[in-house]
Structures are given as C-alpha cells and as structure tokens.
Amino acid sequence: MHTVVVGTSGTTAEDVIAVARGNARIELSGDALSALAAARAIVDALAAKPEPVYGVSTGFGALATRHIGHDLRTQLQRNIVRSHAAGMGPRVEREVVRALMFLRLKTVASGHTGVRPEVAQTMADVLNAGITPVVHEYGSLGCSGDLAPLSHCALTLMGEGDAEGPDGTLRPAGELLAAYGIKPVELHEKEGLALLNGTDGMLGMLIMALDDLRRLYTSADITAALTLEGLLGTDTVLAPELHAIRPHPGQAASAANMRAVLKGSELTGHYQEEEAPRVQDAYSVRCAPQVAGAGRDTIAHAALVAERELAAAIDNPVVLPGGTSHGEGSEGGRVESNGNFHGAPVAYVLDFLAIAAADLGSIAERRTDRLLDKNRSHGLPPFLADDAGVDSGLMIAQYTQAALVSEMKRLAVPASADSIPSSAMQEDHVSMGWSAARKLRTAVDNLARIIAVELYAATRAIGLRRGLTPAPASRAAIAALRAAGVDGPGPDRFLAPDLAAAEAFVRDGRLIEAVQPVTGPLA
C-alpha cells in the first residue's frame, strides 16, 4: 500500500488524493516529531506563566477575556471540541472527511500549532485504521477555519461521538478506537483549539474538485470533437495558428485535443456541401476551445491557490520561533494571534470553478440540442430517433441535461460574496468557503452527467452518418463505450441505464483512456 510521509515541508495535492481516495497509509517523519516537540515546549512554558495567553489560558472568540486557571484547562480544551461539534444535516462523504483530517495533521506536523507529538500520532493512527468521524453538511462559515467539521473529527480523537469503521458500520467512536488499539487523547493547553482552526475541509474539497475537473475538461474536448463530426462541421477552426494569435494556454490545449481526436476523420469538412452551404459552424461548436480553454486557465489559477494553501500552516494563535513581537513569548519562541484562518483565497477559486463548470455544461448542452434538432443537425433524424414519431429518441435525455445545466447556473452563484457575522460580532466577516466547496462538489457531479449525455448523443449521431468513416480516435471511443454497455442507434429503449453507464464511463476517465492510444497523451 502507498505510504505518505508527513513532514515539516508541506505536502502535495497528490498526497491528499492518495489519502482521501486511495486510503494511503500515513507516517510522521522525524523532523515533524522534532518540530512538534519544540513547539510544545514553547506552549508549556507559556502555560506555566501567570499572564493570560489566548488559546492557552483564556476562553475563545468573544469569551477570550476570561483567564482560565490550571485546574480548568483540560476541561477548557475538551469543552471547545464538544461545543463546537455542532454540525447538522446529512453526513459528509468519507473522502472529504479523510482529506480534512489529513490536512489538519499536515498543519499540526508543521510545528506551528503547539500540539504534542502523541496527539499527531493518534490522528495518523485513526486515518490508518480507516476510522471516519461523522461530519455533517452544515456548521462551517469558512472563517476561524472549518470549525464544526474539524470539531467532529477532534471529538473522535477523544473517543466521543460516532464514527464509521472501515467496513462502513457506524459505531461509537470509543468502541472503534478500542477495537484498533488506539488510546483516546486527553487534550492539553491549546490543543483543542489547534485541532479546529483551519481551512482543511474547503481545501480538501478544492483539491479533489481539481482532480475531477481536469479529467472532465479533457473528456469535454473529446465530446466536442465527436459532436463536430456528428454535425459534419469543419476542423479548420482548430488550426494552431488561429489559437497562437490569442495566446491563452488553455484555449490552445483544448484546440490541440480536438485536433488530435479528429485526425483522419471523413466526417469533417462537409459544411459547404449542403443545399444551403454553411459559411461557419455555430458558436457552440466553433468556440468550444475558447470556452473550455478559459475553464482550463481557471483550473490552473485555482491549482496555484491550492498549492500555496498546502504550503501554509493555519492556526490561531500560531507558534513561531524567535523572540517576543506583539504576541506572548517565552525563551525560544512566541505565540501570535493572526487571521490566516480566513478562507477567502480558497473560497474565491471554489466559486470561480463553479462558474467555469457551469459554462462548460451550458455549451455542451447547446451542442447536444443541435444534434437533436432536424432543422440544425444537417441531415440527422429528429432527436436521433430510429422511427421519429413512433420513437422519441433522445428527446428527454436533453431535458435531463437541460435540468442539470439549470442547476449548474444556480450553483454558480458565489457563496463567498455572502457573510453573516458570528460570535457576538467578534467574527464579523466570514468567507463561506465551506459552502462554496459543497456546491462545487455538486456542480462537478452534474458536469460529468452533462458531458455523458453529449457523449451519448454524439456517438449515436456518428453512427447514423452511414457511408462516412469517423476518425480513428472516434472509432476507439465508440467501441469502448459500446463495450461498457451503452448501445448505439436503434428503436427506443429504457434510457436511464445507458445514461448511467455513459456517466460512469466519463467519470472514471475511460473515455480518455479509450482515445489516448490513438491520439497520444491529451492535455
């Protein structure tokens, strides 16, 4: 099994995917354990002083004015976890919980939080055991971190609340820890706060969305090329010199993908051979690289933000080496309050991606509708039906696609533009980054379905262009789709299973895998 080593130098998006989706094992490096011990020594020194230090010997948020004595500090840390574990609604997906737990461990291991090495090791042990805390949909405002989601994870470390075992069974967390020989932690000064105060949930969802969207954007280039073939369109608009004079890298990549798929096609270039010759194809076909390319560039920007956030150590207060600045200090280090937990950088790109995904879904649906309309499909039967009138063909498949696009547009409304003050106006501006991440996950799911419907329609259209041979890559895609159980042209049948199979084919990356042996690697 793949192992991810967590050290002080940050982690990669590939590590997050490996842990969240691939159940990779986690090990703490020697430098991480040393950094944890050094930071803890600073916190212990501050805890021994009579002066109040936020997060160490005070209450939290608007209650930070109260100094907490030594006899109540364990209770203080336990209470912040219990009280902040206030999520409601449906359970969040297992991969999301694993991602946010792993990312919190990454920050803890940086040595900037003051958490003891044994607490970090327990976090790794819980992940390695396949124990997944119950985290709920609602509870994070994306500021002061993803507080409620992370609190539910910290509750499991304490042996409280409910969690899911590796077999999918829901059990009391204490029972699961005992079954795997994991001792519940008793939190010391600052540790409860340190486990809750990060952008880990929204960042984990951003990283997984980027992983999915890269695959979907390449798939959308392929389906756009298949639709161009089905409509007997022209591939001259994909010429590299046309895209070089508008030098957006994503646009050039999408055009190159489409060119590679269409190479050797007998279906392209017939747009001027009809009764009423076309001068050019419709926007949804001709501008496919421009729209998909803009989304690709958006993905590149979002990936840069994710990379920076992965390099961050987010907590409040944070443990820093060196002498006293404005924070509370001890020999060898200090504790500083800060606002790095604010989720704005991540929230903005989550919303930006939802906008780009909605537009890609929108243009794919317009291409599908063009394939089904006999007045615009250049010789194809109405709705690609076998016997139009007796058969309805793909009429309602497009309805489903249109409904998905409509929802995508609603999901594109930015969450990060909203803010509701909390904590008695101490936390008076929040990012709503968790909400942005949750709606992006829904948008990504919908985008896979929209692309699947276009794939289904385009491959049927190509199958109806008898006497003309599609490109070798197109033939490979069609053969793989048929092998996956998705039938070609013919009389009406129960469509939902075909559409579900096409969705899985796109979502799993099998469309890309089918064409790349012909085209070579696609961007």
From TrEMBL:
Gene3D superfamilies membership: Fumarase/aspartase (Central domain), Fumarase/aspartase (N-terminal domain)
GO biological process, alphabetically ordered: cinnamic acid biosynthetic process; L-histidine catabolic process to glutamate and formamide; L-histidine catabolic process to glutamate and formate; protein homotetramerization
2,3-didehydroalanine (Ser) PTM sites in chain numbering: 144
Places the protein is found: Cytoplasm
Pathway the protein acts in: Amino-acid degradation; L-histidine degradation into L-glutamate; N-formimidoyl-L-glutamate from L-histidine: step 1/3
Alphabetically ordered keywords of this record: Cytoplasm, Histidine metabolism, Lyase
GO molecular function, a single term: phenylalanine ammonia-lyase activity
Catalytic function, reaction form: L-histidine = trans-urocanate + NH4(+)
Family the UniProt entry places it in: Belongs to the PAL/histidase family.
Protein name per its UniProtKB record: Histidine ammonia-lyase
Source species of the chain: Streptomyces tirandamycinicus
